[in-house]
Amino acid sequence: MRILMIGAGGVGDAAAKIAVERDFYDVFVVADYDIERARRTVASVQARQPGENRFHAVTVDASDENAVAAAIRLTGATHVLNAVDPRFVMPIFNGCRAAGANYLDMAMSLSLPHKDAPYDKAGVKLGDEQFAQASDWEGAGRLALVGIGVEPGLSDVFARYAADHLFSSIDELGTRDGANLAYFRPDGTEGFAPGFSMWTIIEECLNPPVVWEKSRVVGGNVETGFFTLPPFSEPEVFDFPEGIGPVECVHVEHEEVLLMPRWLDAERVTFKYGLGEQMISILKALHTLGLDSKDPVTIKGIQVAPRDIVAAVLPDPATIGPQLTGKTCAGVMVTGTGVDGQPRSTYLYHVADNEVTMRDYDAQCVVWQTAFNPIVALELLATGAWAGAGVRGPEAFDAAPFLELLAAPKPEGYGIEWGIEER
Amino acid sequence: MRILMIGAGGVGDAAAKIAVERDFYDVFVVADYDIERARRTVASVQARQPGENRFHAVTVDASDENAVAAAIRLTGATHVLNAVDPRFVMPIFNGCRAAGANYLDMAMSLSLPHKDAPYDKAGVKLGDEQFAQASDWEGAGRLALVGIGVEPGLSDVFARYAADHLFSSIDELGTRDGANLAYFRPDGTEGFAPGFSMWTIIEECLNPPVVWEKSRVVGGNVETGFFTLPPFSEPEVFDFPEGIGPVECVHVEHEEVLLMPRWLDAERVTFKYGLGEQMISILKALHTLGLDSKDPVTIKGIQVAPRDIVAAVLPDPATIGPQLTGKTCAGVMVTGTGVDGQPRSTYLYHVADNEVTMRDYDAQCVVWQTAFNPIVALELLATGAWAGAGVRGPEAFDAAPFLELLAAPKPEGYGIEWGIEER
């Protein structure tokens, strides 16, 4: 296996540090728009594993599918890991298809709200552009494994595991994400610094959130499908494990809702994120001002998108690790009927503690928690434990080998524990 | 009198439309960084007064004091009206001094917070840089009439009038500004569009607000001077006249507080602005994100200040008039002892109704309400009713001729009524 990872930001850098401990691949090329960033990642993995010679840095423009295809041909990559913002999904996806590489990402192609009823009906959905090409990928015998970060990703693996091993029927697959992270500036005062790209946070939180329902009564008829809501809908206090505690969560547009119903049977699929009061009021302000816009404005003859400025003024999520404290939790709350026929409510989750991820990987917890999943998936593809073609989500594959490899102690496994809580 | 007005934004454009009806000057040159904007203003006044030939458009870079001085020499300007953002105060002020022109502005040189106690002690105050040069101006026999918009400006005139004619002693000179304006997008939905420059709103609302106190007890001692507070301090519901009604007002850094105590005797001088809940939460969000910053950041090799982006994405205050509804009120609440020896509380105010200002001047009410004051002041200087040299605020001059000229019916006066309310 020859891996080309595009993006040496927070997640890409952490993925390289996790991958360097594994021996399932021959070459791991780190590509970035900024060659210095790619080199920094390569240097840091080489410092962790003296003598390591599988890592190389190249430059690539992720917005140009021809440049992506050229980089694949140059490196002989068999698998491309997309570790950049979701706006680059389609050029990387298309570049892979053109050059015949397999593809993995951690977020899917972007949505467009419904023209007439944006907060009721789904328009172009997350991943629609990718799934439209599913038969091409299948025909070519190539795999696009989409949404294999932590959420989507590990959450989808948990959902598949619950469906296969814990439940006989499922009412709701409800991804719930929350944290108790705090950021302190170098001078010791508390500041504002999201754990992942503000560009992506704006995208997913201000788009109409989507839910899947098997039996929604619409005007006297029962309909099955995807429906949307206004941003920040249906706030719910969810109690997160391992000391994080209760956090108010609201509906957010997320890939799990689009992926799980394709392979798993449930009455309802939802995603709620523990945004907190401050983040919600910041997002509302950005929207009111139009600073969430991706369309460039002209300032003194210079074209710049307001959202790019917002992302640029915040601390880089890749470098805030030393200033963070706390834990972040990703998981799926599954409700329904257990295999014993009794009502069951089970939360399957993973908690990352920033203190531990900084100590062991020099990576902040949110990016680290995202980064290990595609590496585990690549290892399962390398060994043949996972195999397939087409455009597929993580829940299209057997969850057991993933969770076993994840939890098995090093050096056989990754030594990463996950939890189950009955409620 | 030969007038050079620098800035053909909202206020400048309205000032030209008000000035074109008056005959006290010989030439009125409209200068802007963007020559097209200056030409648009000149064309609009010529359309209002066929045959009008006193107006001319030139280009000038307000950030360059040499360019300002050159424009004064080119046009033979005797009086320069600064109608641009307060960040350009010093280059225009210095350019006038160098070229020997008299100077008027509607906002003063910028403040810098106190290094150690920003929310308690005043650092560099609004206007400090200008007042530092007062003796030079006085020696040269030239006048810098600072803060002669509506607030500061008309508010300072009201305060002087109250001190001279209504009160024997004053407890508080409290400028209070509030509105019931609403902005509707072309599609009819309500949007967010401040009535004046968002750059300036951020500057004045996020800087530590300043108050003046004659007798403040500090650590057992009585001190006289300027003190600061945290932004949005001491919220107070103030009932505005003419149907605007109660609006929550908070302390804001403003020139009145720095000007009035120099010429008027009061126990306390304050400024409170009816920001409203939405504006406060937006300003807090901008500050949390660092989007209030004037320091450029680099985006893909381009340098741009976040605050410039915020201002650029909002509707231009100069052009929102047709989409606005409502009224705005500027005034001073004076409390103390009346000339009859009885306790007195009097609000002196001016209300501008957007419907009327659009109809009569094709100008939205906030910029129009700012714009008429420097024109009235210029007329008083032309006739000799106001005369003097040095750096002086509006309250350094007799208020009566100003208020008489303002309220007298056209064509003798400006036909602009102001109000007094006993409380």
Describe what you observe in this structure.
The structure is a homodimer of 423-residue chains. The first copy, chain A, has helices spanning 10-19, 35-48, 65-75, 89-99, 128-131, 134-139, 154-166, 198-206, 255-263, 276-289, 306-313, 354-361, 365-383, 399-407, and strands at residues 2-6, 27-32, 55-59, 79-82, 102-104, 143-145, 167-179, 182-184, 190-191, 210-218, 221-228, 236-240, 245-251, 268-273, 297-299, 302-304, 324-325, 327-338, 343-353, 390-392, 419-422. In chain A, strands 7, 10, 11, 12, 13, 14, 18, 19 and 21 form a nine-stranded mixed sheet that branches. Chain A has a seven-stranded parallel sheet with strand order 3-2-1-4-5-6-20, sandwiched between helices. In chain A, strands 9-8-17 form a three-stranded antiparallel sheet, with no helix packed on it. Chain A is an alpha/beta fold. The mean pLDDT of chain A is 96. Chain A has two domains: 2-149 and 370-418, NAD(P)-binding Rossmann-like Domain (Rossmann fold, 3-Layer(aba) Sandwich); 154-366, 2-Layer Sandwich (Dihydrodipicolinate Reductase, domain 2), CATH 3.30.360.10. In chain A, α1 (10-19) crosses α13 (365-383), α3 (65-75) packs across α4 (89-99) and α7 (154-166) packs across α14. Chain A is globular, with a radius of gyration of 21 Å.
